[in-house]
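Q: Sequence in, structure out?
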Amino acid sequence: MLKEKIERILPLVQKPARYTGGELNSVVKDKKTVDIRFAFCFPDTYEIGMSHLGIKILYSLINSRENYWGERVFAPDTDMEKIMRERDIPLFGLESRDALTDFDAVGFTLQYELSFTNVLNMLDLGKIPLRSQDRGDTLDLPIIVAGGPCVCNPEPLADFIDAFQIGEGEEMMLEFLDLLNDYKKQGKPRKEFLIAASKIEGIYVPSLYDVEYNDDGTIKSVTARCGAPERVNKRVVSDLDNIFYPENFVVPFVEVVHDRVVHEIFRGCIRGCRFCQAGFWYRPIREKSVETISKQSQRLACTTGYDELSLCSLSSSDYTKITELLEELLGWASPQKINIALPSLRIDNFSDELKEKLALVRRSGLTFAAEAGTQRMRNVINKNITEDEILSTCRKAFTGGWTAVKLYFMVGLPTETDADVIGINELSQKVVNEFYNNPDKPKGKGVSVSAGVSSFVPKPCTPFQWEPQDTKEELHRKQQLLLETCTTKKITFRFHNTDLTFLEGVFARGDRKLCNVIEAAYNNGCTFDSWDDKFNYDGWMKAFDECGISTQFYANRRRSYEEILPWDHINSGIKKSFLIAENEKAKKAQTTGHCRQQCASCGSNSLNGGKCDALNKNMVH
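A: Exactly. Output:
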């Protein structure tokens, strides 16, 4: 019995509670009474996966159907995997401890490109053939699906995934599983199901598309077959107030990264930062009402017992009624000693009123994304904040009692010069000076400025999708330049690993030829690539050599506007003409106002019946 085998090995691994299941609010059903079993796989450890809001929503959504059972599966850590392989124990669902092959569908969420080899490792541990073409003609083996932000360019995993869910899954997931249920009951072939699934808006079946290449390695054409759409529209949920949201979350036995109630307050972003994939991918703007957020949050706090509520969005202070929302939440949270966390604050709308509200909740460091050190570079990326706004915001924070500020920056941005890089140091120093020059600063305390410096990665569906990425050597040089020009110990720098950034850049804009590289890297022992202590750079470089693939072709090459990009048959709703216009404005350091100032006609509302909440609720523009 598989369950007994698992029980015997749990005492032999670190953190066995990762693999036991049985947590508060987990769902166990009688497998004999369900029609469809879905394994929701997160290709990273339990602590990372259990912090992800998407898995919480879809887990509860699937289990809300009496005849469907959703279970959780996480990538086992290396100690657990070693024993599983030694004792021939397949990867299993936490709730039933049944093998992956016992499920009807296995779904992966792709949150970051460096999780791709873990997808292959989990399939292999689950004894499922890695490639779609090797899974037979029937529905006996589970259908492999994938969703999440990385599917804006699904091509690097096209050979391994049967169907991608492009966009938001609350409605699409149940339509997909309902269709699978019908086809399994009728004993239909696997290919017939996939052809039928491709007709669901948002479902992309890569095996139904033929890709031809030019002699120079660029794409010549992408042709759909069997009635699949020429372009797959991203699925958009129109009304967040009336869409499914869980009444409870599974409460983990071990501490996870974000161990709190998380509530999404709106989707999309009004800002239009030209480097930011999420800001464009999650458009159009859709807000939840204050009443809905408060009611759902209070229910979750009650059913989970958490004492912290985090408001989730790309820029939480851009929520139109943020002050009213905080008043409403504090009305019931404060008496119950529940802390309200408000991440993702904008520098230019950190008002005195908002500061006063935040002063009522638990004191912690504030994080602001300045992104660039000079005004020219902030204009290039369309950040639309000034140095005066940055310093004024920090002044308000210091007056309000804060002594720790985190600033996020990037290096390697298009048109960047050394003066722009040094500007990061100069701006950080001005923030330090702002603290000591402020007569209302907290008495007897020093200031701490943490500068997180990531490296720019050009991403699909953004105005910078055509831009080259800096080489590893150039990124490392710019990091050293920052360290050499810093003159105070009050500023602490945190840099991203340039090898990881480089690989992320390759796969962010990769095509199907990279499927062979991913499999070769996996065979070379590459897994958990986003973890510094497990990242095997040499294994990856060997894989590229074995496959005859140039990394520079994907990472360090400028694309022309005319080139067919690997993701062009995925419709994000954003018009190509808009992205080109924004790219051209970036070269001139010209800005575009945010969506509440004037609609820039990005096109994203075309997938939502013309509606966008950026200007007015349900306004058509």
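The radius of gyration is 24 Å.
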